[in-house]
Specification:
The chain contains 8 helices and 12 strands. The protein is an alpha/beta fold and 260 residues long. β3 (57-60), α3 (69-90) and β4 form a beta-alpha-beta unit. It starts with 5 loop residues before the first strand and ends with a helix.
């Protein structure tokens, strides 16, 4: 759509949210950055009505890091119900929420279970929506490397991996939010798929990290059993443009510029 719209970004100061805000502003749209720091709390409902009033679309990239299943499910469920209730009352055209590829097959992981609760609440709300499931972010690779390290070896699950740059995720969310609601789930993934250990090895090598990477078929994903395709799209998916090599190059150039 070429028409300028009002878009509320829930979690607008986070990794994805801040990038979505920047894209929207650059294109001339009116943006409300919804965050606790701005007095807007989607979980308690504080400030929501005023923020959402007159909005065309809401992008929900709110987040809570917890491995307490009931706590995280309650957070995502409550937040989604609060948002969609206010949106319907305000006449918001489109609710867009960021989820994770493969989450329905990984519910033994408390966080994935929370994302399932979030998706279910949105679908049951009666509000027009699009759920966007993304693969793991390039920016998450360091966390994964640390989590899977034992001594000097990074032992990762024997699965396929198709990571995506946060910039591509944000761009997809914005494009979808400005369009018509699809009332279905869309998948978005990086432009290249390879075994997890291959891409992890590439990441570590680019950082001069000497840890050895091995594939271990006995490993799961943070408490959830996996199969070869657990973390990659199970069908049609939108493709990001930024490869891991290109992303690593951008990170390296940014560090050089910061040091100058």
């Amino acid at each position: 759509m070429g028409i300028h719209q009002k878009v509320v970004v829930i979690g607008g100061t986070g990794l994805i949210g801040s990038k979505a805000v920047a894209i929207l502003r650059e294109d001339g749209h009116e943006v409300i950055v919804a965050s606790l720091g701005n007095g807007i709390d989607a979980f308690t409902g504080e400030g929501l009505e005023e923020a959402i009033s007159g909005a065309d679309a809401v992008i929900d990239v709110s987040n809570m890091m917890s491995f307490d299943g009931p706590v995280i499910r309650n957070f995502f469920d409550t937040t989604s119900r609060n948002l969609t209730t206010v949106e319907k009352a305000s006449g918001v055209r489109h609710h867009v929420v960021l989820s994770i590829v493969g989450t329905d097959g990984l519910v033994a992981n408390p966080y994935m279970s929370g994302k399932q609760a979030q998706e279910a609440a949105v679908k049951a709300s009666g509000q027009n929506y699009t759920i966007v499931r993304a693969t793991q972010f390039h920016e998450f690779l360091e966390t994964l490397a640390t989590s899977y390290t034992v001594d000097d070896t990074v032992r990762v699950p024997a699965i396929d991996f198709q990571p995506i740059a946060a910039d591509d995720v944000a761009a997809a969310l914005v494009s979808i939010a400005l369009g018509e609601p699809q009332n279905r789930t869309i998948q978005v993934a990086g432009p290249e798929r390879a075994p997890f250990e291959v891409l992890m090895g590439q990441y570590l090598k680019a950082h001069g990290d000497q840890r050895v990477v091995v594939s271990d078929a006995s490993l799961g994903y943070f408490g959830a059993a996996v199969n070869k395709t657990s973390l990659v799209p199970d069908g049609e998916a939108l493709s990001g443009a930024i490869t891991l090599t290109e992303w690593l190059g951008r990170q390296s150039r940014a560090k050089i510029e910061e040091s100058v």
